[in-house]
Amino acid sequence: MNQARPLTMTELAGSHHEVGAEHGRIHRHLIQRGIQVYGQLFHDFVGIRWEEARDRACHFEAQIAQGFPEILEEMNGIAWGAGVDFIDILTLNCRSEIALAHASGGCSAFSLQRHGRQWLAQNWDWRHDQLDNVVALHIQGDGRPALVSIGEAGMVGKIGLNAHGIGVCLNAIRSQTCGPGLPVHIALRKILESEDMQSALAVATHDRVCSPAHFLLASAEVGNEGGQAVGLEVQPGEPGRITPRGGIVTHTNHLYAEDTPCPVQDFPRVDSHPRLCRLDALLHDELAADAGIDEARLFDVLSDHQGAPMSICRHFNPDQPAEERMETLFSVVMNLSERRLTLRHGKPCENDDSLSITLG
Fold first, then answer.
1. What is the mean pLDDT of residues 217-222?
2. Which of 35, 125, 241, 309 could form a disulfide with 106 if both were Cys (CB 3.0 to 4.6 A apart)?
3. Which domain holds residue 73?
4. The whole model's pTM is what?
């Protein structure tokens, strides 16, 4: 497999339309290639062509217009800058709703509160086809908190943090549930534009999310010990909640919140439970009394290979069907207390080079 290309931070500023137009212009080639990748992915996972995927995406436009209308301006800007149709960009941003009834990634995420610092980290696992379409966006929107989003070219949001110390991670959930609410990636961006933890939580509890996913939401806002975090198993109904145990929340790709108000059915792959158990062991046992926690130590957790090929750091597995092979495409560690995000593109075990940004 090819190594990941070096990433630089893409600086975007202005209105939503201006941010989108510059995003589309700078990453025009990656966006066009991403449309080709997802055209094949939708065919492999769902058995539909790109044109049919576009038709399905159109059903979500009215829900976005109701819950986050400004982001439609940004998607229009991306389309203009990239030289593609608005519906193509809408389809990219609704890819979870179109494809995840049949496919889920293998992401492993955790939050950790220690020594007055709130940490948030994860591996993002997906098809190798998207490795070179990963982008790092630093967005300074008019009248909105500065934010960093690590995700896929042409998509308005995914994993990141903002200048108020709000951060969010994502775990895909394979489920056939879909209903009213914001598409997953639109909801993630709205969280990243939130002024505080309360408004970030409202995206899951008030706006709701079309299809099941797990949002690991954390804030540097002072709690009992210097930060706060909650796992939100989002869906069209009231989300299930996972509160910290020993300052830690862990999650992979299955639903496990207790007493969920609106239970939905998920269909996790066999690797999800072993990865969660290993995360718990690493964080609750090995890091329980560790005073030397920093980015390097947490990247070591994300580089763990115990139980391979069902490990936290995922590599090419020829025993899986070709359409199901998931690999770690990037790793992120966020120190929310210091508003710092550090990214490793590709597998964290193979790449010590990091891209780091601190928001003032």
1. 89
2. 125
3. 9-99
4. 0.96
